[in-house]
Amino acid sequence: MLGSRFIDAVCIAALACAILLTGGLYAAGGAGIITPARDDDYLDLLFQQNRVHSIDIQIDDWDAFLATATTESYSRCDVAIDGETFTGVGLRAKGNNSLGHIAERGLSRYSLKIEFDHYEAGLTYHGLDKLSLDAAFQDNSYLKTYLALDMMRFMGVPTPATSFVQVSVNGEAWGLFLAIEEPEDAFAERVWGEGHGMLYKPDYRSLDDENADVALRYVNDDPASYSGIFESARFDATAVDEKRVVDALKALATGERDEIERSVDVDEVLRYFAVQTFVANLDSYLGSTGHNYFLYEEDGRLAMLPWDYNLAFGTYALGRAELPDDASAYVNLPIDTPAAPEVLAERPLFTNLMAHDDYRERYHGYLDELVQDYVESGRLQTTVRQAEELIAPYVAEDPTAFISFEEFQFGVDTLEAFCLLRAQSIRGQLDGHIPSTLEGQTAAPDELVDASSIRIEDMGELSDLE
Question: To bridge 294 with a disulfide, which of 157, 257, 301, 305 should be the other Cys (CB 3.0-4.6 Å)?
Answer without folding.
Answer: 305
